[in-house]
Backbone:
């Protein structure tokens, strides 16, 4: 993946690069454990100073998205625990990638426990406790993001509603109290969020011995290609429940197209049907191409129908099919012990 920086953009170069790398990780273009380009490589690719690239990597590391390995490089942070002995304490999220055959994994895990000094009976108790803890945590799913981007939690929860377990969206600011109440009632839950917010969410879940799993965002490759084919001077509108994804998408499009494309954004709040719609109306009037997420689609269509007579032209509307990478729903379902998930 090539990162592009627009030198004339009012957005700082470091923020442009941060947004592009974090989106590449959140959409799993760079999966957990992947070694990122060196600061020298990124500096040459983007024409930025190595100090600027280093600053971006430090910010990503501070937010728990990447980790620096001395003498090796910068890697996408693996959301795995250090050992089976610690997992029942609610440590972090796991990443289920392709690996050895199941029996090889079982034998390897048992051998590791034996090397730690456990007897077979103790290893059995450890494994049984871990499995039971995961099953208990799979009885309900809490999807969370900070309040300022709570629309993202709604988007994720919407695509997880077909899982055979209750799904609830709640702000990160309310997660501490909610998990405390569950713990007092002797209940467990799995907490899920996007990789953007995994570090703060994981810290809260870990404190209450609940499970925390990361959700991967859809790469939006088709949508980026659509925008990439627009003529210079075109206006593209972006509409979503999530202000965070709008900010990231706007920065990525600016990096790709620079000043030859006008990008307008509007946030839809489904919890406030009487919200001010002037921004959305202006976007519909100005845009030639308009991209929106599934929940926003009906709102955008209603706005266009209501004000069609005031529009010189009706924008071409493209509805994004998934906010989450489809595979991540299947992985989450397996992680929670719910089967194979939804297609």
Residues:
């Amino acid at each position: 993946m090539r990162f592009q920086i627009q030198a004339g953009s009012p957005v700082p170069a470091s923020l442009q690069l941060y947004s592009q790398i974090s989106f590449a990780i959140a959409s799993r273009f760079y999966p957990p454990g992947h070694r990122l380009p060196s600061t020298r490589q990124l500096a040459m690719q983007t024409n930025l100073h190595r100090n600027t690239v280093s600053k971006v990597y430090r910010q990503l590391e501070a937010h728990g998205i990447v980790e620096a390995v001395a003498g090796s490089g910068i890697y996408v942070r693996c959301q795995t625990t250090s050992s089976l002995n610690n997992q029942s304490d609610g440590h972090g999220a796991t990443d289920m990638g392709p690996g050895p055959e199941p029996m090889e994994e079982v034998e390897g895990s048992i051998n590791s426990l034996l090397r730690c000094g456990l007897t077979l009976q103790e290893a059995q108790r450890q494994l049984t406790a871990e499995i039971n803890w995961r099953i208990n945590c799979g009885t309900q799913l809490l999807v969370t993001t900070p309040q300022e981007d709570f629309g993202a939690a709604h988007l994720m929860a919407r695509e997880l509603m077909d899982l055979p377990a209750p799904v609830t969206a709640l702000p990160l600011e309310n997660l501490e109290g909610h998990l405390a109440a569950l713990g007092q009632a002797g209940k467990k839950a799995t907490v899920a969020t996007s990789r953007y917010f995994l570090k703060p969410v994981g810290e809260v879940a870990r404190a209450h011995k609940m499970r925390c799993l990361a959700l991967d965002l859809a790469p939006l490759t088709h949508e980026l290609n659509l925008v990439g084919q627009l003529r210079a001077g075109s206006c593209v509108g972006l509409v979503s429940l999530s202000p965070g994804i709008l900010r990231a998408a706007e920065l990525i499009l600016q990096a790709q197209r620079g000043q030859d494309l006008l990008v307008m954004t509007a946030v839809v709040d489904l919890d406030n049907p009487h919200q001010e719609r002037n921004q959305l109306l202006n976007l519909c009037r100005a845009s030639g191409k308009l991209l929106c997420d599934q929940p926003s689609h009906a709102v955008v269509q209603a706005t266009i129908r209501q004000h069609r007579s005031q529009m010189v032209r009706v924008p071409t509307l493209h509805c994004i099919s998934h906010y989450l990478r489809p595979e991540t729903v299947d992985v989450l379902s397996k992680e929670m012990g719910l089967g194979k998930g939804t297609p």
Remarks:
- Residues 80-94 have pLDDT under 50 and may be disordered.
- The first helix runs from residue 13 to 26.
- The CA atoms of residues 82 and 91 lie 9 Å apart.
